[in-house]
Amino acid sequence: MSSGVPARKGGLGILAITGWVFALRRAQRVQARPRVHQLRPALPRPALVHRPVPVPALVQRQQFKMINRRKLNGQIGIAGELRVMSELLLRGFNPAKSYLDHGIDIILDNGKRIQVKTARRFSRKDRKSHSTYYHFVTRPWDYQRRTKGRERMSEVDIVICWCIEDNTYYVIPAHELKERQGFELFPGSVNSRSKYEQYRENWETI
């Protein structure tokens, strides 16, 4: 006895095989696709350096010292310029302050251009004859460009160095310091062999 509907031979088997084929192809495509961490290049790991973490109070103290040092150097420079101007006034000159930072600090009425250098006294234990000294810088080091600073000795005629603790002046012609980056003076030493000792209190040069 038949129901009148033709029976489909092998229909379910074909559908099952087709589904397995599509699933197998999809699995192969997923395996062949690179993962996210494989696309990113491997970065080199930095070397581990054990450094102590600075205490915020200590960092603030160091910054405060640097600011105070720069401020103190500026105050010493201004004090030196005023001190030299007063000395020139007492000696009969008419000095004028230059407010432009071009190497010239004082201009006299006779046209002489003067640069003032001021320094405090340092002590050095490895020297027997010169235990104390004063260090002056003519061409400061440029830390940003890592080169020597601008040579300004050609823009002035005379360099007056004031040693604060000994209250001694060295009036040096600028051409004597043109090729130097810095020099030292020893006003506290009696037997100083410095070549700049001949310019101590050498006001006749002006």
The total count of helices amounts to 3
The helicity comes to 25-40%
**For the terminal residues, how far apart are their CA atoms?**
141 Å
Structural category is alpha+beta
Find the count of extended strands (DSSP E, 2+ residues). 10
Shape: rod-shaped
- Flag low-confidence runs: none
Which percent band covers the strand fraction?
A: 15-25%
What is the CATH class name? Alpha Beta
Keywords:
30% helix, single chain, 206 residues, alpha+beta, Trna Endonuclease, Chain: A, domain 1, three-stranded antiparallel β-sheet, 3 helices, five-stranded mixed β-sheet
Describe the protein.
The chain is α+β, with helices and mostly antiparallel strands. The protein has a single domain, classed as Trna Endonuclease, Chain: A, domain 1. The chain has three helices and ten strands. The chain has a five-stranded mixed beta sheet with strand order 1-2-3-8-9. A hairpin with an 8-residue loop joins β1 and β2. The termini are far apart. 15% of the residues are buried.
Question: Nutshell version of this structure?
Answer:
With 206 residues, the protein is α+β, with helices and mostly antiparallel strands. Helices cover 30% and strands 19% of the residues.
Outline the fold blueprint.
Blueprint: H1 11-32, H2 36-39, H3 56-90, E1 96-97, E2 106-107, E3 113-119, E4 121-123, E5 132-137, E6 141-142, E7 147-148, E8 158-163, E9 168-173, E10 182-185
Parallel strand pairs: 3-8
Antiparallel strand pairs: 1-2, 2-3, 4-5, 5-10, 6-7, 8-9
